[in-house]
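Go through this one:
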Amino acid sequence: MRIFVSYSRRDGAVTSETLRVLNTHLQGVSKTFIHCLCESESKWEQVRVLWALVTSHAVLLVESPATVSSRWVRLELRIARFIGLPLMRIKASDLVRAHDA
């Protein structure tokens, strides 16, 4: 199963470290796409992100105040709904608590 993780790091609620922890946790059940954890391959990163989205089986939204205002996150969710991908949600604060525990 491929899971596309949608998030915004603009408000600091989601960090690369919390996304690494999430990725490690999900690796046991799926192959995840978390853009900030991927090495940049080309000048066509937006296309790479969209390709990862449309070839995924589900989307996991890491909710934070910044995801509400992120136009990119809204686009990802709109595309996911259009192609019928299931949407799962997790609060960024829950990731932080799980990481600290």
Observations:
- Helices lie at 16-26, 45-54, 65-69, 71-83, 92-100.
- The radius of gyration is 13 Å.
- Residues 2-100 form a domain with the Rossmann fold fold (CATH 3.40.50.10140).
